[in-house]
Amino acid sequence: MIVVTGAAGFIGSCLVKKLNDEGHKNLVLVDQFNRSDRARNLHNKGYIAQVDRNELFQWLDRFGDAVSFVYHIGARTDTTEKSKEIFDDLNLNYSKKLWSFCSERNIPFMYASSAATYGLGELGYVDSHDIVKDLKPLNPYGDSKNDFDKWLLDQDPNKNYWAGFKFFNVYGPNEFHKGRMASVIFHTFNQINKTGGMKLFRSHKVGIADGQQKRDFIYVKDLVDVLYFFFEEKRTSGIYNLGTGNARSFYDLAALTFLSMGKEVAISFMDTPEDIRDTYQYFTEADMSKLRSAGYEKPFTSLEDGVADYVTSHLAPNDTW
After folding, report:
1. What's residue 235's pLDDT?
2. How far apart are CA 14 and CA 228, in angstroms?
3. Which pairing describes strands 214-215 and 248-249: parallel, antiparallel, or unpaired?
C-alpha cells in the first residue's frame, strides 16, 4: 500500500491522480475528510482507504506492515499563520513521527519541503545540504519546513530511501479551496470574471517595478511527474529543489491569464498587505542541476503553456484533475 498524506488538498490530490494514471489504486489517503470544500478533489480517484490525519499512527500500528511507500505531502501551508506551536505540531513533530515509523521499517519516504526555507535568498537557491543549517526563512511556516530538513539530515542516512522536495511556487488544478493561499492565476481568473481587471501587489522595494516581483512558477502536473520519477527510479536520497529554474514576473503570470481567457490585459496595483510586507520574497529561482544530475530529463511546461492549460482545461469549465 502507498500512503499519501494531504491527499484531499491541492498537490496531494494531483499526486493521487498521477498515481492512478500510472496504475496504482492501492492508495491509503490521509487528510481531514470532514472538509466539504475539498471533497471534489477526490472525485473519480481510486484508493482503498481514507484515514483521518489524527488517526494515522493508530492505523499504522494495525496495518503498517502492509505499507510499501509513504508520500508525506500534508502540512499547514498558511504563510501568514504566526503560531509556532501550530507549525511545530503539524509540520515538524508529525513529520518526525512519520519518518521514524518509515525508517524503523525500511519504508521509502518522500516529503514536501518548501522554497520558503530560502528566505530572502541570501545564500542563493542551491539545494545543497551544507547550507540548510544556515538558512533564514522569513516566517514560521518556512522555519517549520527548514527545521524538519535539518532534523532529517541529522538522522541515519542509510536506514531507508528518502527524498525531500523544496516546492517553489506551484499552480494548477485542485486549488479552489485554498482561499488566500491559492495561486495568482486562480485569483486573476476570478477577479477578471468579477471586475474585468486584476490588481497585483505594488513593489515596496527600490529597483523593482510594480508587478516585476519574480518567482519560479511550476505547474503541478510537472511536479507530480517528478515525484513519480523518484518513486520509480529510487535515485540518491537527499533534498532536491523542485521548480523550473526560470523565474517569471507576476505581471507575466496575470497577463497570460487574461490572454488565455481571450481578454484584454487590464492590470493595476495595490499596496502589499502589511502583515506579509516584511516577509515577502521578491525573487526565487531554483537551481535545478541536482535534479537533472539525478537523471530527470523531462522538460518543464512553459508558463505560457501551463497557464493556458490550467485556464482552459480546469478553471473555465470548473473542473478538477
Report:
1. 85
2. 11
3. antiparallel
Please spell the DSSP secondary structure of 240-298, one letter per residue. Answer: EEES-S--EEHHHHHHHHHHHTT----EEEEPPPHHHHTT--SB-----HHHHHTT--P
Indicate the DSSP class of residue 312: I
At 203-255, the pLDDT tens digits run 998 999 999 999 999 999 999 999 999 999 988 999 999 999 999 999 999 99
- Report pTM: 0.95
The single residue of 178, 199, 263, 290 carrying the catalytic annotation is: 178
Summarize pLDDT for 243-297 with one digit per residue, the tens. 999 999 999 999 999 999 999 999 999 999 888 887 888 999 999 999 999 999 9
Identify the helix (H) or strand (E) that includes residue 221. Answer: helix 220-233
Q: With the C-alpha atoms ordered 123, 125, 126, 129, is the resulting torsion angle positive or negative?
A: positive
Beta bridge partners of 227: none
Rounded to 5°, angle at Cα 25 from 24 and 29: 110
Counts of helices then strands in the chain (DSSP H, E): 11, 13
How many other β-carbons are positioned within 10 Å of the β-carbon of residue 68? 10
Tens digits of residue pLDDT in 63-94:
999 999 999 999 876 655 666 777 777 888 99
Given the residues 94, 118, 125, 141, select the one marked as catalytic.
141
Q: Residue 111 is placed in which grid cell?
A: 516529503
Nearest to 283 by CA among 201, 216, 221, 231: 216
What is the residue whose three cell numbers read 505560457? 304
Among 72, 171, 173, 128, residue whose Cα is nearest residue 289: 128
| Side-chain half-sphere exposure of 228, counting CA atoms within 13 A | 20
Judge whether 141 counts as a catalytic residue.
yes
